[in-house]
Design goal:
With about 250 residues, this protein is α/β, with parallel strands linked by helices. It is built from nine helices and six strands, in the order βααβαβαβααββααα. It has helices spanning about 20-25, 30-50, 70-95, 110-125, 140-155, 160-165, 210-220, 230-235, 240-245, and strands spanning about 10-15, 55-65, 95-100, 130-135, 175-180, 200. It has a six-stranded parallel β-sheet with strand order 3-4-2-1-5-6, with helices on both faces. α3 packs parallel to α4.
Length: about 250
Amino acid sequence: MVPTSSTVVPNHVAIVMDGNGRWATKRFLPRIAGHKQGVDSLSRCVQACLDRGISVLTVFAFSSENWNRPAEEVSGLMELLAYSLSKEVPSLNANGVQLRFVGDRTRLSEKVQAGLAQAELDTSANQRLIFNVCFNYGGRWDIAQAANRLAVRGEAITELSLDREMALAHVPDPDLLIRTGGELRISNFLLWQAAYSELHFSDKLWPEFDEAALDEAIAVFRTRERRFGKTSAQVSGRSTNENTKAA
């Protein structure tokens, strides 16, 4: 494969932030302590993306399947979300970060829904980094809701029309999708949008994921040849004949 330029950074990075609970369990702490530590890691990650010129960051904060976790943990996550909004939004706003919450809000309390809407409104004019937080989100839900919107309007369901109705239609598809925690799957995250994303799996638990780990993922991304169905010769600008002679 032909490496990409050493100066290239992905425009859009998506992250499955896995391993908060395991991080806490290893330290004989309640699982919610791991989630709190994960919020600190996320704050560092946002700043690292700003420093590196990444334009879009999308994170998987709470999946539609996470409702199946113990009620105490779910309740703690909701409280943590409300606390994080009040604590982090002023700083995000000052740094030019536009906050967007992506997912089904119908199961969230009115208080939480109001907090999400206010955070989005307060940061809506910012353009330095678009920060999508996928909360009560699932890739299958996303595709289904897009198809349902089209069906309600009586519009034909095509790749182009579906793409316009997806929950992340406001940003380009992710260039790099990272999963922490050592698991080798994407767990119903951005199933539509990640069709051509480069995948990177880190053994680090999310609270341990730091700037160096992000740089490692970006370095790996730079070695990938992104062909999008084309040949290596087409991507590099060589003609088929030149490629044949070189071979």
